[in-house]
Design brief:
230 residues; alpha/beta; Rossmann fold; Arc Repressor Mutant, subunit A; 2 domains; seven-stranded mixed sheet; 45% helix; 15% strand
């Protein structure tokens, strides 16, 4: 499998794109079994003005090792011909190694159930390969800033039991969940809802318990898919 990772900030000589003073290079890791697809994405995402800095490694395990050695980047992009080819263990391993770095999966959605499993494994978004480069750029920016990206087709394909699990939440918990889905930290949620940060933490704990998810990232993904808080 061919993978691309972004060089650590300390080794980047130019973080601002020449000719575009406000455009900062984002650090991206692309992992894809197709060398041709990877090279095309690498070239396309390097085009100014919204430029990503990309370099290559060989495997997901090597990528994880580089992260453990202190290298940092903004987003991990896992690609494949179809979602059935995406290794769930790779997603889980990356999510555990770099929980602060969002994972976006790009592949043709040949199995909606498999796509749902990809999201549950720890991906912050799923982008069907049939979407455009413009949509990919938007999805990368969305997950980089703390949001999630899930196409409407996956929301509609969600099992009936998942479509409105948030109905058991209180109105205030729905407000908190909506802000979690936007990627806001507890401190910002507290300020927006005019409550203490400890109260927000208590709400988050109850939300995770009532939605029967493992963490706030999974709660955000579930909220995005089902329209919680909207």
């Amino acid at each position: 499998m061919m993978a691309y990772y972004v060089e650590p900030a300390a080794r980047l000589s130019h973080s601002v794109v020449a000719g575009f003073p406000g455009a900062v290079r984002r650090h991206l890791a692309i992992v894809d079994q197709s060398r041709l697809r990877s090279d095309c994405l690498k070239l396309a995402l390097s085009i100014q003005p919204r430029r990503w800095r990309v370099a290559d490694v060989t495997t997901v395990s090597e990528l994880i090792q580089r992260v453990l050695n202190g290298e940092e980047f903004d987003v991990i992009l896992l690609g494949g011909s179809t979602c059935s080819q995406i290794n769930l263990l790779d997603i889980a391993s990356l999510a555990a190694a770099v929980p602060q770095t969002p994972i976006l999966v790009a592949a043709e959605c040949d199995d909606p159930d498999r796509a749902q499993m990809i999201l549950r494994a720890g991906a912050r978004g799923f982008l069907p390969a049939s979407h455009s480069l413009k949509v990919l750029r938007g999805a990368l920016d969305r997950v980089r800033t703390g949001g999630t990206y899930v196409p409407l087709s996956l929301t509609e394909a969600a099992p009936a039991a998942e479509r409105a699990p948030w109905r058991g939440l209180t109105p205030r918990q729905c407000d908190v969940l909506a802000l979690i889905a936007e990627g806001k930290a507890n401190k910002l949620i507290a300020a927006a809802l005019k409550m203490s940060e400890s109260t927000v933490k208590a709400h988050v704990k109850q939300i995770i318990r009532r939605l029967k998810v493992a963490n706030r990232t999974q709660a955000a993904l579930l909220a995005t898919r089902t329209g919680a808080g909207h």
